[in-house]
Amino acid sequence: MPFRLPPLSAFVESASAVWEVAKSNLPESCLGGPDERLNFAKHGRNRGDVEMTAVSNAEGVPGEEGVPPEGQPPLQREGSVGSVSTVGVECADNDQITEWQAGWNVTNAIQGMFIVSLPYAVLHGGYWAIVAMVGIAYICCYTGKILVDCLYDLNEEGQLVRVRSSYKGIAREVFGQKWGGKIVNSAQLIELLMTCILYLVLCGDLMIGSFPDGPIDARSWMMLCGMILLPCGFLKNLHHVSTLSFWCMIAHLAINIIIFAYCIGNASTWAWSKVMFRIDLLEFPIALGIIVFSYTSHIFLPTLEYNLIDRSKFTCMLNWSHIAAAVFKALFGYVGFLTWAEDTEEVITNNLPNPTFKGFVNLILVVKALLSYPLPYYAAVEIIEVTFFRGRPKTTFPSVWALDGELKVWALAIRVLVVVFTILMAIFIPHFAILMGLIGSFTGTMLSFIWPCYFHLKIKAGKLEWGDIAYDYFVIFLGFLFGIIGITTSFYALVEAFQIGLPF
Fold it and tell me: CA 18 → CA 12, 316, 324, distances in Å?
């Protein structure tokens, strides 16, 4: 009997029901409880959460110059119609987001397209891959908390005050004013733009997989999908991006439901004995890289935390988004591998036998990729505008915002050119996915593992217990280990790919 899919409306209703059930079971600090302190009294206090308890009572001090002179009141955030939270000036009311909208954005970042490769990770890592999916979720949640913790210092009254505005501001504090911001900005921009390009590459690959005999080739599909994304240039605030991230989450749930339903329908053929306890030392490093870089969201966290209506709920939001990610990824990878065992492909949808069913699933993945694009794109554009287009004397070029609060025409053209740049890079760079793995092995581990812990040790020096210090050094060690492994394996894969020849 052929496998039949329920109507799409059923998936949307199911997603809404699951969402309401999840909300009803979350702690009060995520549901508008009176105070995070009360939540800690009810549910316990984690060491990593201690310094976040006074955030809701502290004035934001986002000026890039740090703490205001003694005797002056805390710096007030300047008004702005554009979301410039990377700079640290105040966003308009329609730019502020709830903890749920922030959670959708984090989910967008860490429940990305890599999920379709997780069964492949289990193929080469067995139960250790599943352990890695949960363990790396815990580590990335921890480094996300301490990164935001580095934005704050205690004032004379013992309250936490936001004295740094961004990842860049933290790097300036540690690496120095001259090079700190440039180092982090470069790493962030590379990571964000390459993520955008990879989404377009995946769109082309998925569409050609759905229509292998069609008249349109993969590069043409990339161009067509890129044209759909040109309106991203009009995005003005995180509220709009959060809406797109919500629908990306719905597409993500739809994919999970479809794949799970198919796998459970074939539960009688599951290969329980094929999940191994040993590690394939030649192939598992690639799988480990897939897992590590599927949890990178640190680029967005200072921006999201700044724009939260109630910043005291940031920790709870981060906890639940990473718990959900770990559960989804572990189950998806495990069940997917049980279904296809040694035949598991790098992209799990390629295992689907029915061409029509496979095409339908790939189309949903394309929609998910298109909805995932705006978040890294918006963050990349924000970095470019903050670095070069804030007006004199702060930057060489004038501000991108007109006095009436609208984007200037030439600024919109620059934003559109960024989309066009990602399209061209996706089309013309040979073996881009491998090249991104090579560069991402450096930027991803630095931004998500090494730098947050290093900054934490430097900025909070003398305030940390020995256990916190030891754990930070342990995460730094893991970051270097994963980075070296990823760079090495990606480099050899790139050399082999060039020996085969360019894909033209």
Answer: 10, 19, 12
| Three-class SS state of 154 | strand
Nearest CA to 365 out of 354, 376, 349 is that of 349
156, 370, 485 from 240: Cα distances, Å: 38, 15, 38
Cα-to-chain-centroid distance, residue 228: 22
Entry pTM: 0.74
Contact 133, 118 (CB under 8 A): yes
Residue 456, token pair as written in the block = 């934490």
**CB 191 within 8 Å of CB 447:** yes
- pLDDT tens per residue across span 250-297: 888 888 888 888 999 988 889 888 888 877 776 777 677 778 877 888
Alpha carbons 127 and 364: distance in angstroms, whole number: 29
Q: Alpha-carbon distance 478 to 63, whole Å? A: 33
**Phi, psi at residue 120, to the nearest 5°?**
-65, -35
Burial class (CB in 10 A: 0-12, 13-18, 19+), 360: middle
Contact 152, 58 (CB under 8 A): yes
